[in-house]
Amino acid sequence: MEEIQTSDPVSLRGHWILDPEVHFLNHGSYGACPSAVLDEQRSWRDRIERQPVAFFGLELRNHLDEAREKLASFLGCDGSGLVFVPNVTTGVNAVLRSLEFGPGDEILITNHGYNACNNAAQFVCDRSGATIVRASLPFPCRGPDEAFEAILAAATDNTRLALVDHITSPTGMLLPIARIVQALQGRGIDVMVDGAHAPGQVPLDLDALGAAYYAGNCHKWLCTPKGSGLLHVRSDRRDRVRPTTISHGANTARSGHTRLQDEFDWPGTIDPTPWLCVPFAIEFLGGLLPGGWDEIRAQNHRLALAARTRLSEALGVEPPLPTEMIANMTAFPLPAAEDDAPRGAFSCDPLQARLIETHRVEIPISSWPAPPERVLRVSAQLYNDEQDLEALILGLEAEGLTC
Question: DSSP of 244-291, one letter per residue?
């Protein structure tokens, strides 16, 4: 097993309120929020409830501006093109449903794409007469070139938009997103990047990336409260994008703000505290290790690689992805499921249920690419260590899946 030289996960685990009896290897699904960030959220909520009229009417937009600038600095982008959304699915819907498509147009997605976002693409195609084209990325994949070439080969003269993951959800595949964006946009195809897993997993410079549209989650790897995501729109595309909820911002312009900000900043009365906690979460997480976010990413990456080694040995299969295509997650194909029934987004594979109920290991097992085929995905976060990996291996062994 690869040696992991890290700060002590046991002491770091104390910052989260996760069940201490569970080996939680599923940070990638919904994230997990540290106690200090939850305390920050309570403070914001108390502040709102002391004087809600003054807060929403007079204070909120200034606080959103401050939070936006902190997040923009972390993401390497101009804040004038950055808005908060509850999650990536909302951001992707806003973009797709703002653009105009027609018969003969194509939207390019991949076979590793997130189901909810693919559904949004299918919705706008069904409504407009456009067509979905699905690029088939190999898994196992020998390297970034294979994924890059598969996406480029699926693009045609009719492709109007490509919806491409930065890090794929079911398979944890880190795609060569800069090359993909440059190549597709060089052919006149705008790219919408689903960056749900990227903020906090990999360094970002969205201005340098230059994607037309980029959506990300903060509640995953930035560990903010649930309901905090982001959408970044390049300056020459901002006039095309409107939120799915049209509200007061449509005719209430503010000095020094873009229309994008005016419309997205006020979707109606909501709980804005997940967004307002973003600056605190960035600072808090970054202060947990001496090397800040660079050290966090490095530590999580080492544990993900260790998990890849252990699973490869235990399952008797070669690692499906090379090191350069892994960030904080690693996934492995499993033997076919006990039945071939399709499983919805909220259904649970019987093996996943047994692992948590019997072996106290929380880990996702997805029907991918289609039932009865399935994959297991390990997430590595600061609170994880080798004991969590060992519990997973023992659970798989007890279920008869190891060599």
Answer: SS--GGGG---TT--HHHHHHH-SSS---HHHHTHHHHHHHHHTSSTT
Half-sphere exposure of 224 (CA within 13 A, CB side): 28
283-330 confidence digits (pLDDT tens) = 999 999 999 999 999 999 999 999 999 999 999 999 999 999 999 999
Residue ranges, CATH 3.90.1150.10, the chain: 9-25+292-398
- With H, G, I as helix, E, B as strand and everything else as coil, classify residue 219: coil
Cα separation, 111 vs 373, in Å, equals: 14
Neighbouring residues of 394: CB distance < 8 A, sequence distance ≥ 6: 359
pLDDT tens-digit readout, 175-228? 999 999 999 999 999 999 999 999 999 999 999 999 999 999 999 999 999 999
Q: Which CATH class is domain 9-25+292-398?
A: alpha beta
CATH number, domain 39-283, options 3.40.50.620, 3.40.640.10, 2.40.280.10, 3.40.50.2000: 3.40.640.10
The reported pTM is 0.96
Cα–Cα distance list, 158 to 109, 336, 399 (Å)? 14, 37, 48
pLDDT classification of 346: cutoffs 50, 70, 90: confident
What one-character DSSP code corresponds to residue 379?
Answer: E
DSSP letter (8 states) at residue 24: E
CA-based nearest residue to 289, from 8, 2, 3, 76: 8
